[in-house]
Every structure is written in structure tokens, then in C-alpha cells.
Design a protein that fits this description.
This protein is an alpha/beta fold. 38% of the residues lie in helices and 20% in strands.
Amino acid sequence: MSLLTLNAGSSSLKFALYDELGPRGDQDDDPVPLLAGQVAGLDASPRLELALAGQARRAQALPREGPGKVDDLDDALDAVLDGLPAWAPGRVVRAVGHRVVHGGTDYAAPQVIDDATLAALAHLCPLAPLHQPFNLAGIRAARARFPGVLQLACFDTAFHRGHPFVHDAYALPRELHAAGVRRYGFHGLSYAYVARRLARLDPQAAAGRTVVAHLGSGASACALQTGSSLASTMGFTALDGLPMGTRPGQLDAGVLLWLIAERGLDGEALTDLLYRQSGLKALSGLSADMRTLRASTDPRARQAIDYFVARLREAVGALAAALGGLDALVFTGGIGEHDALTRAETVAGLGFLGLTLDETANATHGSVRDGLISRAEAPVRMWVVPTDEEAEIARHLAEALARAS
């Protein structure tokens, strides 16, 4: 029996298949991955990337027209679900776990999906328009393909639901807080995985005060107190906090009022501006991809990088203040794991917190493994920990099956 995880987005579909039992063969062990991959480039040039257990990742282009075409998320889901019997012969899918970005006020833990749950989650689509509709499309496709199989929604917001009031509320009328206008935080599956991983790598640091920076096309930072979320840079939606690939991060609400009054922007235009036309893409005028910006000689690319790093430094400092100090700083996500320069530039302005970088370790660290990048004598430990949201979903799946048995 196997566990399938799906992470459906607007331009990609990540997936993984796990053995239900870990190497010890008991329910308390982490599920073992059998294969992992993604269908990427749905908005341009679709390709399938696949890695079977113990083998190197391989990629192949997918057609956009004709037999077997992959032109949208539905096609990608068909390609993955049709491919599973060949990639994992004889394996029977016993349960499917889904990443769902927004759980609102109702879901503070993984939830078995039924029609009522699916309808409730659909009402949250306006709060996560880049993610939620595609997450739910993946759920509908999997329910149709695997009728009667347990389907579990795992929420990015759930990890942050224990925030104290000062990190949960906005200074707005309390009626709005009761109605759900609050700081939810996101990237929770990533933070939960990193917190568990850090507890194994560095128990002393993990038992204290940690800031984790999840840096990718979506970016945020989270303050962990003894492994639990205390505060996050993201709030009501995934627009707040750090600048991102195409999202602005922290923004004076007066800018939106001005755009409405002076430029005549309506809700649809603001949504497009804030979710798709801002961030690094807007600042550089070139690209939303940090790799492209690093390779460019255009001064606007350098300004965009400097802006990103400056906001990240401020966020680390603010979260350290919320924690009352700092014992560890962890980088994760695509940029956090792969871009040594972003790590170095960020830490260069944070020596007052006790952060001292081992430049050799930072420059030579590979994202396929965990790496300590602080100097041996540094009072604050710094780690690069590759995240694995699919592994976190699989763990929740195994726990849900154990409860149901």
C-alpha cells in the first residue's frame, strides 16, 4: 500500500509516492519515498521531472498539442495519475494527501476531505487566488480517480494557528477579527518539516529561539519558539511580509486607496497587480527569478536584489525581537537553499545578533543535504535545511490512517 501526495499550483504540479510504513515497519516511523517529481512549466514549456528512489532525477519535455498533450493542470494531473502504474508497478494508492494553502479559521489541523469540506475551502479562494483554486482542482481530480480512498487536506496556515493575540490580530475593529480578518501565516508545511528536521540536527538550537527564512518565488520568515510558530511575516493573505517573485510583500494600505481613487483600479486589476506584476519582477523590470537577476548586469537587477536582502534583514531582526533573542537561523526554499550570495548578504548586516558566517561552508554547501554554515565559535547557529513539504504531508497521511484503523 502507498501514500500519494499532490501539491497543485498554477504552473506546476508536484507529486510524490511513499511506502505506507517506514524502514522499521511501524506506524511511528516516517513514510519512505518511492518516487517524487513534478510537471513544471505549464505556463510555457511543460516538462516532466521524475526521480525514482535511489535514482537521479530525469526530465523530459511534454507535448502541448496532440496525443498526451499537457496544456493545463488537468492534463498534468492526468499525466501523473496515468504514469503511476508504470513508475511504481503493483503499488496500490491507499490515501492521497493534498497541500492546501489556506485553511481559514475552521481548520487548524489536517482534515479528511468530504463534499462539505471542499465547499468550505472553495470560499477561501479569494484569499489565495494563486494557489487555492489549483489546490482544490487537484483534490477533485484525485477524488474522481481514487473513489473511496481517504483524501486529506494539509494546510499551510495550520502551523501558525497558535499565535498569541499580538501576532494574530490587526489593529482593526474586533468584529473584523471575529469575522476572520487576522494574520494566518503561510508556508506552514515547510516550517513544520524544517522544525522537525532541526530538532534532529541541532536539538539544543531547536529547543530555543529560531528564525526560519523560507525563500523562493513565495517568501516568508517565521519565528519558532521551541519548534512552534510564534510569529510570521505573512498575514491575512500570502501578499504580506517579504518581497517575492511577483508579489510586493509589506505595503502601505494607503497605496491601494490611492490606486483606487486616482488610477481607477478595481478589484480585478489590483489582484493582478499585487499577485502577478509586483515583487522582483517589478523592481527589476526583467524577471521574477533570482537566478536571472544574479546573472544580469542591469543595475535594476542589483537594486531588486538589494531590496529583497534589506527587507529580509529587517524581518530577521524583527522576529528575533519577538523571540527575545536568537539561537538559530535557518535558510530553506529555492533561494534559501541554492543562493549562497543571498545568505551571505543577509547575514552581513546581522552581526549584532551574533550571526557569524563560515564563508567556506556557505559557498560550498549543496542543497541536497543539510549544512551548518555558521562558524564553530558563533553564539547563533546557522543552517541550510532543504524543505520537503511532500514528506510532511505523507507523515500526516500516515497518522490519519493510523487513527482510522
